[in-house]
Write a structure and sequence with these properties.
Layout: E1 3-11, E2 18-27, E3 30-36, E4 50-53, E5 57-61, E6 63-68, H1 85-95, H2 100-116, E7 119-126, H3 131-137, E8 141-148, H4 156-181, E9 194-200, H5 208-221, E10 225-229, H6 233-241, H7 245-252, H8 266-274, E11 286-290, H9 298-305, E12 308-311, H10 313-318, H11 326-332, E13 335-338, H12 351-361, H13 367-374, H14 376-382, E14 391-395, H15 405-415, E15 419-424, E16 427-431
Parallel strand pairs: 1-4, 1-5, 6-7, 7-8, 8-9, 10-11, 11-12, 12-13
Antiparallel strand pairs: 1-2, 2-3, 5-14, 14-15, 15-16
Helix pairs in contact: 4-5, 8-9, 9-11, 12-13
The structure holds zinc ion (ZN).
Residues 67, 69, 125, 228, 289, 341 line the site of zinc ion.
Length: 433
């Protein structure tokens, strides 16, 4: 055994039952054994190579941040608040024009922030695959979803070739290089746990041809495909009739002046038309981000296909959107998850902070439901085994000793608990000192 860890409370990731007085035995990337009731004479000594006796502590599944843009982390607190979405988008396009070391430093800080707040896996939307090495160095699991974005159908294949080049440069070479000459104890031998996927940007910026190339590839290779959709009322106007703020933005960038609109909603465009040849068996690896403004047949399509849908509560509040339609989506049976979006529209990457904003938006929501959205529902995207040793262990709050799960989580959500330790893929990636 690699680790023996004693905690007063352990949440079973399958049954979501809270177990008391538990010793976890971790071997490789999995929890090999859960000993309940502390029935081990002689304590932890001799049970494993390393022992952690954390006492009054609550072990939960590690957080899965299902939507981030780590390569915008250098813009933390650099973009004025209160901008309209299209003005914010202009600021982001300008903000990307900085030297690569600044972007790498931002990604590194963001990974450290995430690990220190109990996140053990991130689905990152990435323009150039720059987060791959940083995720691996910090011991995080990740999907680096390569962003492809191009109106012109004639450019779709060139966009996919550019994504292939990123894979060659960031994944194959980093894997070879790290394996060959990674000498330091902190450097990983490979990019284990970090893989790539695809992310067509949004149906108002990206052609049907490029969506189909990306989704066809993701589907065929069993990868994650994620896309922004139905984020703003302006997107709905533009997709339906090529009018409104996004039309103005497109004209500013000289894009596709002949477009007249699709006469439908963005969600229906994707699920009912562009991706429909593959759907029906898509499962949780199709991750639709935002879906803030469902209308028409959108909910019926989502109920039929049951993709993953990601809500980013703090970023949602930052842009002043209408309350996220949580209860409508719960009824569809879709796999609901939480994400942070980027530090250009969020003050942090702490998933308890996302849950806190979720509770502010929907005070009656089950905290247990929110925890599922922040943890095990995200694991479904990554196809993680139930026994994965991806864990976040928290200081038991005062008054938390005898509480049932829902009440205990309510204490956590309001009070930003202290992380005692985090494991990802069986490795200790964060530890309070
Ligand atoms: Zn995003």
């Amino acid at each position: 055994m690699d680790y023996a860890v004693r905690v007063s409370h352990y949440l079973d990731p399958v049954t979501f039952e809270l177990q008391r007085d538990v010793i976890l035995l971790i071997s490789g990337v999995n929890v090999a054994e859960v000993i309940v009731g502390g029935e081990v004479s002689g304590g932890l000594d001799g049970l494993a190579a390393h022992t952690l006796d954390l006492g009054d502590a609550v072990c939960l599944p590690g957080f899965v941040n299902a939507h981030a843009h780590l390569d915008l982390s250098h813009l933390h607190r650099q973009v004025p608040r209160g901008l309209a979405f299209t003005d914010w988008a202009r600021a982001i396009i300008a903000g990307r024009q900085v030297p690569a070391p600044i972007i790498h430093a931002g990604i590194d800080d963001a990974c450290r922030m995430a690990a220190a707040t109990g996140t053990t896996a991130i689905i990152d939307i990435s323009v150039g695959g720059m987060s791959a090495g940083a995720l691996a160095r910090h011991g995080l699991r990740g999907v680096v979803a390569l962003e492809v974005l191009q109106w012109d159908p004639a450019q779709a294949e060139a966009q996919m070739r550019a994504a292939d080049e990123v894979v060659r440069r960031r994944f194959q070479l980093e894997s070879d290089r790290l394996g060959a000459d990674a000498g330091g104890a902190t450097a990983p031998a490979t990019l284990a746990g970090v893989d790539f996927g695809y992310s067509p940007h949004a149906p108002y910026t990206t052609s049907r041809e490029l969506y189909q190339l990306a989704y066809g590839r993701a589907y065929g290779e069993g990868r994650v495909m994620t896309t922004h959709v139905s984020e703003t009322p302006a997107e709905l106007d533009f997709v339906r009739s090529a009018t409104g703020q996004i039309a103005d933005l497109m004209r500013q960038f000289g894009a596709w002046p002949g477009f007249a609109g699709h006469g439908t909603t963005p969600i229906e465009l994707l699920l009912g038309d562009w991706l429909s040849p593959w759907l029906g068996e898509s499962g949780p690896r199709l991750v639709l981000v935002h879906c803030n403004y469902p209308s028409g047949n959108d909910r019926d399509l989502i109920a039929a296909i049951r993709p993953t849908i990601c809500w980013c509560p703090r970023s949602h509040a930052y842009f002043g959107h209408q309350p996220w339609p949580l209860y409508q989506y719960l009824e569809t049976g879709a796999n609901l998850v939480l994400g942070t979006d980027s530090l250009a529209s969020n003050d942090g990457l702490d998933m308890w902070g996302e849950m806190q904003f979720a509770v502010q938006a929907h005070p009656d929501v089950s905290r247990t439901q929110l925890l599922r959205m922040a943890t095990v529902n995200g694991r479904a995207i990554l196809d993680l085994a139930d026994g994965a040793a991806d864990l976040a262990i928290w200081d038991l709050p005062t008054g938390g000793e005898g509480l049932e799960l829902e009440k205990l989580l309510n204490l956590f959500v309001g009070n930003h608990p202290r992380l005692l330790a985090a494991f990802s893929q069986g490795n200790l990636i964060a530890r309070a000192i």
